[in-house]
């Protein structure tokens, strides 16, 4: 029996404060790179809950999603892995400076868009630039775009 292919669902946050954007610097199997706070949807989570959790785990910041920048799909080079990314925008509502960050996270940094885009060779994926560019272009979609049916059986 063949295994059924499924995309890896991820969430990411584009967070702007005072003209700077929150990014994480992280060590990966491919080396040191930069990404928006992002990660995988876990079983039983809503997409909004997943992005709130990921931002907190990777940056120590509490995040309030206000909408979507976009929905993106990307294939990982030379593999059968596909990522389906839901990129949210929103605001920081608090900070836990003493919080231990996820394994691999070197630091959470506030950087200007120009600097993030100039670091494109060190981005975790091409979606980092694309999400930021779409945000800067004013792409915004309400959270009501997302619907979750919960089986109440």
Automatic annotation (TrEMBL):
Task: Please indicate if the UniProt record lists Plastid as a keyword.
Answer: no
The record ties this protein, via CDD domains, to: NUDIX_Hydrolase (cd03675)
At the top level of its lineage, which domain of life is listed? Bacteria
Q: Where is the Nudix hydrolase domain?
A: 4-133
Gene3D superfamilies given in the database record: Nucleoside Triphosphate Pyrophosphohydrolase (3.90.79.10)
Q: Name one Pfam family in it.
A: NUDIX
Q: Which family does it belong to?
A: Belongs to the Nudix hydrolase family. NudJ subfamily.
PANTHER family registered for this protein in UniProt = ADP-RIBOSE PYROPHOSPHATASE (PTHR43736), DIHYDRONEOPTERIN TRIPHOSPHATE DIPHOSPHATASE (PTHR43736:SF1)
Record note on quaternary structure: Monomer.
Record protein name field = Phosphatase NudJ
Q: Which organism is it from?
A: Crenobacter cavernae
Q: Which gene encodes it?
A: nudJ
């Amino acid at each position: 029996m063949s295994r059924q292919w499924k995309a890896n669902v991820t969430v990411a946050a584009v967070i702007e404060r005072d003209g700077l954007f929150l990014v994480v610097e992280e060590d990966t199997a491919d080396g040191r790179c930069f990404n928006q706070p992002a990660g995988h949807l876990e079983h039983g989570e809503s997409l909004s809950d997943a992005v709130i959790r990921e931002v907190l785990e990777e940056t120590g910041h509490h995040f309030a999603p206000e909408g979507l920048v976009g929905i993106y799909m990307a294939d990982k080079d030379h593999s059968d892995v596909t990522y389906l990314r839901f990129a949210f925008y929103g605001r920081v509502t608090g900070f836990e400076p003493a919080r231990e960050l996820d394994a691999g996270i070197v630091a959470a940094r506030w950087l200007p868009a120009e600097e993030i885009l100039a670091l494109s060779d060190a981005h975790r994926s091409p979606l980092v630039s694309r999400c930021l560019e779409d945000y800067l272009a004013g792409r915004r979609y309400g959270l009501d775009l997302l619907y979750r049916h919960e089986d109440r059986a």
